[in-house]
Amino acid sequence: MKILACYSNKGGVGKTASSVNLAYACATSGMKTLLCDLDPQAASGFYFRVKPSKKLKEATFFKSRKKLLGAIRASDFENLDLLPANMSFKDFDIFLDRMKKSSSRLKNALKVARSDYDFLILDCPPNISMLSENVFRTADRIIVPVIPTTLSVRTLEQLCLFFTENNFSRKKLLPFFSMVQMSKKLHKETMQILRGQYDMLTPSVPFSTDVERMGVNRAPVAAYAPRSVAAEAYRAVWEEIVARL
Amino acid sequence: MEKEYRRIGFAEPFVFRAENSVTGSRLRTTLGSKSGLTVSVDKGKYRKGQLLDTFENHLLKAGRVLLTVDGTLLLLNLTTASVIEQKAVSDWRFAGDLGVGALADELSSLTRLRAFMPVGKAAFRVDCGSLLDDEKKTLARLRMVRLRRGKRMLSFGVTVPLRGYGRGHRCLERILRDCKARKNNTTLDLYQTLGISRPQYTAKPKMTFAATTDARRAARSIIAAFIAVARENIPGITADIDSEFLHDYRVSLRKIRSLLSLFQGVFSPAETRELKALFSAMMAPTGTLRDLDVCLLGREEYLAMVPATSKEGVEQLFAFLERERARALKKVVRALNRSGADRELKALAKRFRSGKKLTAGPAATLPAQEYGSRLILKRYRRICTLAAAIDRTTADEKVHELRINCKKLRYLIEFFAPFYPQMDIGRLLKSLKRLQDNLGRFNDCSVQRQFLRTIVEEKMAAFAAHEVEVSEAIGALTAMLNRRQLKERRQVEKNFARFDSIEVRALFLKLFSTQKGEK
Fold first, then answer.
1. Residue from B166, B126, B136, B135 nearest B40 by CA
2. pLDDT tens across B130-142, in order?
3. Does B6 touch chain A (CB under 8 A)?
4. Phi-psi bin for B390: left (phi > 0), alpha (psi -120 to 50), beta?
5. Is this complex's ipTM strictly greater than 0.90?
6. Could A73 and B165 be called an inter-chain contact, meaning their C-beta atoms sit closer than 8 Å?
């Protein structure tokens, strides 16, 4: 089982949309996929119409394998299951802080799913915390959506610096451009500069109303607009991720 | 540890059948509106087609229905309510004729030797449904195959549980049960329910005599049962539907002949001789056709065995064998018609059923089970003696003798199987089968080599312009068969040792020992 995390320490960059659409692309390629929502806002679950888990409260996520497995829900799409989040996930850092071997807790908890799935995709909340350190340790690759704007670039720099300072392998990082508006000069210029500085994925995902409509349709883009530019872009991003694994 | 958790969140599908009662509106009414849940069912369109199956109803027994609809084949799985399609090839009859495809693979896994023939007309449709929650999330799915023939109708369906939605699945199962869907235990009555009459053919009829029945009555009952099997196959042989008709015909006659020699003393010696000669005479005209069938069935294997340069020769050889087969078939059909095989078998069946015109031998009154046990143990010991003497240097004839004896033992065990625990008999037959398969393959190589030799010695004139290619092909095939036969020969000792295990020996004694202290 390969674990991929969709992560950025900046909010609003399209982490959840990326997690959902990449998980869908993964599942449609025939891989058994589990999308694990670590964000207490539980937006991934909302997109799949899956209600927040009731029994996976407080530290049970890390302590009870049985409850973690019991909280997994099938989506309406073949090969794609979901581990929905709930508001108690906001206190993950507090629970982890109280636990022994806190830095490998997430890895241990997720081991239980390895026989059922080919890919596990983590939708992460936007912060640098004990949980994100767990994510960096657990994931085989960290997919980082980057909007080609000044603040996003700054965030990517901060993340790379954090990886270097804490001895995480920077090779794990797979940044890609998200919510791109090619009509904007700033986006174009920023993309050019960043491609020179970082090993960005080649395909980029455009800003699209099709993606925004996910909240209305409550499904991945490719499920209701399979030929849209956004759906094609997510597919291309997924293919490059697989090629780089 | 992981294993323990693996099934968490999974429910068992409900495999059901229903008559006409499970429809979308009926399910919705049963569910009611209070729960906040809804049921949606997409009705499929009816498609009319021709049902197909083999003489032995392979598809029905496997819970499958095969239909041909406008040149397309559709295979319905009644346990999973799934459908696979494949374009039909014109004039196809065997799974192998269909080429590559999931449907062809499924049919091949059921039978490669039996022809698929029309059974009757029917229409079918597939309905798909879902149970949804208040946010329109699917909680459980449903698939249903509905079959219709005139006014007769029945549905087979299955629920599809979704991980983590056990409660939703239970709800769907409950409303289905409320709509009179019931657990589907069998699909065997499908044709009957649709008003299609089909033969209930089996090549291995169950024996219905009691353990205390006298040996003569038991023999009569077994022979009558196998005469019935032989008779059922005659129309299939004359219509040349598939090679299994002739095979089963010959096997049933061979079993009768074997029984007559094994049950020494049940009938008078003169009558035994007369009956054996009679059944042998009935089998005799079919030998060449069967040999040709075996050869032709191995076509693909033969082609794969030889180098590319010999393939053309093999094709020529097979074209010749096809022509020979057509001739042999004509002869068999003529022989069956001329001798009135069916009429003769019917008269014999009557003779065995009534028993009045059969003279009793000295062993006629022995109880069947005791008699059978004695014969089985005797044959088993004979096999052990024969096999013990076999090593790498033993002549092939001895291996053939072992094969014949194994076959006889198998027949005996099968005749008397109802008197013994099914599981024990299953274990014995399984261990015997491995050895028999090995010996059978050894014999096939030998028969086919001999067959090719006859062609070289007597029939080469038939190839005229292709004599060189065919000679080369026969040479290549003979070499391959020789190599294969040697390989099989080497495995006989190993397979016998497996058969001759302490457990099998103990089981033979436990089941068939008739005297105290017999070892």
1. B136
2. 999 999 999 999 9
3. yes
4. beta
5. no
6. yes
